[in-house]
Structure formats: structure tokens, C-alpha cells
Amino acid sequence: MVLIREDESITALTDDGMEELEQMLSYARRSNDEWNDFLDSFVDDEELVARSKGKSPR
Question: How crowded is residue 38: how many other Cβ atoms within 10 Å of its Cβ?
């Protein structure tokens, strides 16, 4: 995955980084409490957090 920011720099996510992110999300989805903790820790948009907390982590 390659992200291009407004300042036109490129940030690449390695395969190891993708695996780590997938693992982090799978752990967060084990329960509603862990999902809510994950959202509080990693998402800065309070409106998005509020909407996401109303849904099941899958």
C-alpha cells in the first residue's frame, strides 16, 4: 500500500507492517470492550469513534 500525502511524499507500508496491522485489528475485534479501547487509542476523529462504537466489531 502506498499513500501519497499533500506534501507529495510517499509512505509505503511493508508486508510485515500489513501483517502487524491485521493482527492488531484481529485482537481488537475479540470483544466490544477491546474494540472500544482500540478506537479510543488509535482514532482521532471523535465522531467516527462514536459511530463505530455503536456497531459490532464483527
Answer: 18
Q: How far apart are CA 19 and CA 35, in angstroms?
A: 18
Residues in the chain: 58
- Residue 12's H or E segment, with its range, is strand 10-12
Cell numbers of 19, please?
501483517
Burial of 18 (C-beta count, 10 Å sphere; 0-12/13-18/19+): exposed
Q: Is 14 helix (H, G, I), strand (E, B) or coil?
A: coil
Whole-angstrom distance, CA of residue 35 vs CA of residue 1: 24
Q: For 8-26, what is each residue's pLDDT tens digit?
A: 556 677 888 889 999 999 9
Report the predicted TM-score, pTM, of the whole model to 2 decimal places: 0.62
